[in-house]
Amino acid sequence: MSDSEEYRFQVNLSGMIDILSNHLYSSPRVFLRELLQNATDAITARLDSEPGHRGEVFVELAGSGENSTLLLQDNGVGLTEDDVHEFLAMIGHSSKRGGAELLGETSFIGRFGIGLLSCFMVSDEIVMLTQSASGGPSIEWRGRPDGTYTLRKLESSLTPGTKVYLRAKPETDLFFEAGTVELDLLHYGALLPYPIRLAEGGRERRINPEPPAWIFSPNLADVHRDEVLRFGEERLGERFRDFIPLRTANGRTGGIAYVLPHAVNLNAKRSHKVYLKRMLISEQADNILPEWAFFVKCLIWTDELQPTASREHFYENEQLERVRGELGESIRSELIGMGASDQQRLRRILELHALSMKSLAVEDDEFYRMIYRWLPFESTYGHKTLGELLDERRTLYYTASLDHYRQLRHVASAQSLLVVNGGYIYEAELLQSLPRIVSGADTRRLLPEDVSLAFTDLNAEERSATLQAARAADLSLQRFRCRVLLKRFKPTELPALFTLPEEAATLRSIERAGEESPQAFASVLGSLGGSMQGSAQSILYLNLNNPVVDKLFAGPPNAKLPTLVEMLYANALMMGHYPMSRQELALLNAGILSLIDWSMESEQGGE
Ligand SMILES: Nc1ncnc2c1ncn2[C@@H]1O[C@H](COP(=O)(O)OP(=O)(O)OP(=O)(O)O)[C@@H](O)[C@H]1O
């Protein structure tokens, strides 16, 4: 035991920098964010001991191309010699957290002790001149990516604070250009409460305007509507027309949810800009609002969430869960409020973002109750809101799939039957739960075969006149497990209606999969399908009100009848958007050829 020796891990700094630049940070551009954030933290630390202190950041650019340099100066707490050895030179060590506690609360943004290394993405040396506000000599520190550094005490004292100098590496001078730096400083620091000034080419200007009062008191936002909208356009790059103020109960997180001026895809990436302690930390936070809130893009400020080391996300912890819930609640209650007092506004939002509203309503009865009147649906009476549909009928029939709706649409409208399409996402669930939400309302799911109940049977005379032909027709589709029934129904233009009970539909898809799959799999599918075959028959209703069908069944069956019935069958499948099997496609193909052949024969016969 005793002859073992103890060694220390060595850190290969250039390897670490490589990891940071290629795997942690999205772009070298973030070095400015890290510097600005260190400056902000240093000012916050100084304010602790000197509450009246007025923080300032000064940035100066000089030279051009490969000789470009950048200075970022703050008047924060600065560093003593001991601090430099402890915090600057020890990677992963930070002055901003108590002990080893990485996730605890602090008043600072930084916590990992690695941010400064991001400067090595754009510069081969970091030069820091610093004077601690607690006294002691001024220090010059020079750090290099090979892991070495020098430290020198300066003869004259600087004013308290820190200056960081960087010289552009080849090919990174773009990040030192005045236009880029100005944009980035504004990007990251637009809400900082102290001035950031930029000097270059003999010019000096303030970059960040005074943050408006409503920013940290969202209840003032409504009074400054135009300003809030303009701010959203500047920071998020879109022209908005509406917004919802956000706040949590403890007031530590707030913001503005801008209502997107265009419809968005359900799967679209949701990215919000989040300011931590007033600095832009994350531009693509996607976990800070509930999933359903995909119709807004937000500017959010918080001092209670913890960013990950890349700063691009926030830790999924209880705090984030609470904040997410409360921000969602802000949106939800504003929408509910609109339902009561500003229906025009709610309607406008709903017209664009019905999908989002439906996804929220599915999960939240209270919300559904407040907004159901304005939710749009497709129906055989046209596009209407649920309120309008309920004004028409207290009992609503709906289909649960788009294909069912397509099949039923014509027959139902011809019979003035109000059928609502519940085939799009969330709709069938919403329609099913409607009676729970609205007293006196009733909804019933409709299948294509239910509509066939409204068909008129043939009378005894018609039945015996068509008996033989009907049998021949029925026989012609037996191999597709489809029964043929003669009825009369509206609309007369519709010759045939294909209906598929649930089991038959399952069997159809098993068979189609079997067609596509290799032999072994197909045989498994085959035996599976076989066990269902008895009960799974589809029905093709042929409409004797239709003149062509009527002609087809007048008199004894002729030789062409089976082919013509097969064509009606294929046509009805297509009308109902059913995927066709290879056998059915072949049927269609052969049928078309026969039709061409017959028409030519009859022309030749007529010549
Ligand atoms: N401008 C500054 N003024 C005073 N101290 C500074 C300044 N910049 C850096 N430091 C010191 O150097 C330490 C390391 O900084 P670095 O940016 O690497 O990490 P951090 O800010 O602590 O954490 P993070 O990696 O989360 O940004 C800081 O903890 C702080 O003590």
Secondary structure topology:
Elements: H1 13-24, H2 30-49, E1 57-62, E2 69-74, H3 81-88, E3 123-131, E4 139-143, E5 149-153, E6 161-168, H4 178-189, E7 196-200, E8 203-206, H5 225-236, E9 243-247, E10 253-259, E11 272-276, E12 279-285, E13 296-302, H6 318-341, H7 343-363, H8 365-371, E14 376-379, E15 382-385, H9 386-392, E16 395-399, H10 402-414, E17 419-421, H11 427-437, E18 442-445, H12 448-451, H13 460-476, E19 482-487, E20 496-499, H14 502-516, H15 519-530, E21 538-543, H16 547-553, H17 561-575, H18 582-606
Parallel strand pairs: 1-7, 11-13, 16-17, 16-18, 19-21
Antiparallel strand pairs: 1-2, 2-6, 3-4, 3-6, 4-5, 7-8, 9-10, 10-13, 11-12, 14-15, 20-21
Helix pairs in contact: 6-7, 7-8, 13-17, 14-15, 17-18
Adenosine-5'-triphosphate (ATP) is lined by residues 34, 38-39, 42, 74, 76-79, 87-88, 94-96, 110-116, 162.
How would you portray this structure in words?
It is a single chain. The chain is elongated and about 120 Å long. The mean pLDDT is 87. It has helices spanning 13-24, 30-49, 81-88, 178-189, 225-236, 318-341, 343-363, 365-371, 386-392, 402-414, 427-437, 448-451, 460-476, 502-516, 519-530, 547-553, 561-575, 582-606, and strands spanning 57-62, 69-74, 123-131, 139-143, 149-153, 161-168, 196-200, 203-206, 243-247, 253-259, 272-276, 279-285, 296-302, 376-379, 382-385, 395-399, 419-421, 442-445, 482-487, 496-499, 538-543. It has 18 helices and 21 strands. The strands form 5 sheets. The chain has an 8-stranded mixed beta sheet, covered by helices on one side. A 5-stranded mixed beta sheet has the order 9-10-13-11-12, with helices on both faces. The chain is an alpha+beta fold and 607 residues long. Strand 1 (57-62) and strand 2 form a beta hairpin. It folds into 4 domains: 13-206, Histidine kinase-like ATPase, C-terminal domain (Heat Shock Protein 90), CATH 3.30.565.10; 213-345, 2-Layer Sandwich (Ribosomal Protein S5, domain 2), CATH 3.30.230; 376-451, Rossmann fold; 456-501 and 537-606, Heat shock protein 90, C-terminal domain (Four Helix Bundle (Hemerythrin (Met), subunit A), Up-down Bundle), CATH 1.20.120.790. 35% of the residues are buried. Helix 14 (502-516) packs antiparallel against helix 15. Helix content is 40%, strand content 19%. It binds adenosine-5'-triphosphate (ATP). The site of adenosine-5'-triphosphate has 22 residues, from helix 2 and helix 3. ATP binds at residues 34, 38, 74, 162. Belongs to the heat shock protein 90 family. It comes from Saccharibacillus brassicae. One of its GO terms (molecular function) is ATP hydrolysis activity. InterPro entries: HATPase_C_sf, Hsp90_fam, Hsp90_N, Ribosomal_Su5_D2-typ_SF.
